[in-house]
Amino acid sequence: MLEGSVEEFFEWDMEEKWKAILSISIVLIDKNQIDVGNRILFQKAYRKEEVCKRRNPSALAEAMSLAMSKISKQSINDIYDCLKHSDQDKPI
After folding, report:
1. CA-CA-CA-CA dihedral for 8, 13, 14, 20, to nearest 10
2. How far apart are CA 57 and CA 33, in angstroms?
């Protein structure tokens, strides 16, 4: 089971530029584990800042989407690696 939460999701207006800020945390849990201490397979927080191309809501949405895309790609790779290594540790 994969759980997560959005920690930050905001526009950061600076004098020279705007930024989209996004951070999330995720936890991968093995619900089949009887021992609660062994249920968490993976836990990580991700944070991305993307500069907006312009200073308007459309550019903010584009930058936030790019941040989410990068976080998604990284988290998918991390989860895949975790599951790949956990499968190698299981006895045949």
Report:
1. 50
2. 45
Whichever domain contains 63, its CATH number is: 3.40.50.10610
Q: What is the domain count for the chain?
A: 1
pLDDT digits (tens, 9 = 90+) for 48-78: 999 999 999 999 999 999 999 999 999 999 9
User: Residue 22 CB: number of other CB atoms within 10 A?
Assistant: 22
In this prediction, residue 36 has a pLDDT band, given cuts at 50, 70 and 90, of confident
User: Which residue range is the domain that position 63 belongs to?
Assistant: 2-89
Residue 89, both tokens? 């540790």
pLDDT over threshold 90, residue 37: no
Model-level pTM?
0.85
Q: What is the 3-state secondary structure (H, E, C) of 39-80?
A: CEEEEEEEEEEEECCCCCHHHHHHHHHHHHHHHHHHHHHHHH
